[in-house]
Amino acid sequence: MKYALLGDIHSSKEDLDAVLDDIEAKAPDAIRVGTGDLFECTISKKDVKGQTYTKMEDVMLLPDGFEELLTFLSVRGNQEERILQLTETADVLREKLATMPETFSLSEAEIVHGHQWQWGGEPWSLIRADVERTPVFYGHSHKSGLRRRGVETPIEFGTPYPVTGEEVLVNVGAVVGDREWALYDLADQTVTFMKA
Asked: Which whole number is the average pLDDT over 141-151?
């Protein structure tokens, strides 16, 4: 079984269209799975002061036809969490966001957005990830990457990398701007970083 992992879309319909076309061309049978931040919240976290909104469009970007492209299961990211924090409405889209899980499993692998972990430094990067399973596929930083026991492994797009062993973390990259995604081959236990 193969999984096409994509995230950090941030409401970019054009980039998502390109990535979905690339997945269809390169791995048409792969099951699509999201790593969060599908939507873009238009209110930054520093501007959240307890206010609430009754219209989803007041707090998020929602291009025409974008929601219809989101036909795959995804974990929620920090953008979805902020949208939920800022809205009070019975809107169907809000209800969908509220049901997005924080994490879920694909066999032995785990999917998480990654904003739950410790980030910082210069350049801004992952400092510590508390994980119980391996491999873990995530996003958040918009930078494709492979870490084994805390050490970055240089990657090339289009090359499969084994994801066996302890503390294997795979950042699937960002759809927005970079048009990146990752192909996880469960049978071979590999990940291939892709770019549309």
From this structure: 95
Amino acid 86: pLDDT: 97
Strand blocks (E) in 88-176: 103-106, 109-112, 118-120, 125-128, 136-138, 145-148, 151-153, 160-162, 168-171
> Residue 58 corresponds to which tokens in the numbers above?
């007041």
Contact 169, 136 (CB under 8 A): yes
Asked if 183 contacts 32 with a C-beta cutoff of 8 angstroms, the reply is: no
Q: Which residue type does 34 have?
A: G
CA dist 128 and 60 (Å) reads 30
Confidence at residue 19, expressed as pLDDT on a 0 to 100 scale: 98
Task: Tell me whether residue 178 is exposed, middle or buried, using C-beta atoms within 10 angstroms of its C-beta: 0 to 12, 13 to 18, 19 or more.
Answer: middle
CB-based contact 83:57 (threshold 8 Å): no
Question: Packing angle between helix 78-86 and helix 92-99, nearest 10 degrees?
Answer: 130
Q: Dihedral of the CA atoms 43, 124, 163, 185 (nearest 10)?
A: 30
Residue 29 structure tokens? 């049978």
Six-digit token pair at 19?
């990535």
Instruction: Give the pLDDT band (50/70/90) at residue 129.
Output: very high
The C-alpha atoms of residue 19 and residue 16 are separated, in whole angstroms, by 5
Whether residue 174 contacts residue 12, with contact meaning beta carbons closer than 8 Å, is answered with: no
Give the separation between CA 167 and CA 150, rounded to whole angstroms.
Answer: 7
